[in-house]
Amino acid sequence: MGRFEGQTVVVTGGSGGMGSSHVRGYHAEGANVVIAGRDEEAGRELAAQLGDRALFVRLDVTSEDDWAALVREVEGRFGPVAVLVNNAGVQNPAALIEHTELHTWEHTFSVNVTGQFLGTRAVTPSMREGGGGVIVNIASTMAHGGTAYYAPYTASKWAVRGLTKTAALELGRDNIRVNSIHPGVVSTPLINEPAAAGQPAIADVYSPDPFAIPRLAEPADVTRLLLFITSQEAGFATGSEFVLDGGLLLGPALRPEPANAA
Fold first, then answer.
1. Does the pTM exceed 0.90?
2. pLDDT surpassing 80 at residue 203
3. Residue 181: beta bridge partners?
4. What percent of the chain has pLDDT over 90?
């Protein structure tokens, strides 16, 4: 029996690079999976591949009405929500603060922060009715420092830290745990494709070579940690931040010493 047998799991941005990995991971562990997002073609195709325990629901994470409709549809199909993965996010085009448009700032916060706030608010009554649950907010290592040219994204991920800890305090006595994952650079379209025309992709200018684990993360790396955090194996963890970055925040690692010549 899988760790999530019979439980209902909602993943926002569920057909994207990390999201689809998370959806498949939960499905393999026996969960009813809800692929929530705006890409209907990809979402419905993934649901069709997975079969009866998978459902695509169109969701704009910044819409209160969409969230309310999602919870109604999910409860009607599968019952109460047990796990919410607030995975949907956007990256801003690289720009100095003085050259960043207000709409870019507002859009980044709307998706990355307001979307997680609305998701948390929407599923809380469902989780409470079901006897508890787990919420995981996908943050970033950029929430642990400053990053030039990415003020909207960086600030939004700092905000996710505060939202996560506050929600954990408010919901703990309802048997609802709330944690965050802070990935480093993960090989997804967000990293491998330019955020704006004429700009390089982040993967083109970032190198993991100096760090302790000299590679990009794969979505499956994040999925494995996520499955642990949302399982009963991590039942004592709430308000916690799980960094998964191959040592990026530690800084450059020592190079191996060359073997002495005989």
1. yes
2. no
3. 138, 242
4. 88
Bigger pLDDT: 193 vs 120: 120
Residues in the chain: 262
Give the pLDDT mean for 96-124: 98
Residue 85 CA to residue 154 CA, distance in Å, equals 20
Q: How far apart are CA 213 and CA 168, in angstroms?
A: 31
> CA 51, 221, 81 angle in degrees (round to 5)?
45
Catalytic annotation, residues: 153
The domains located in the chain, with CATH, are 8-243 (3.40.50.720)
| Residue 7 confidence (pLDDT) | 98
Q: 109 in the Ramachandran plot: left (φ > 0), alpha (ψ -120 to 50) or beta?
A: alpha
Angle, nearest 10°, between helix axes 151-171 and 115-129? Answer: 20
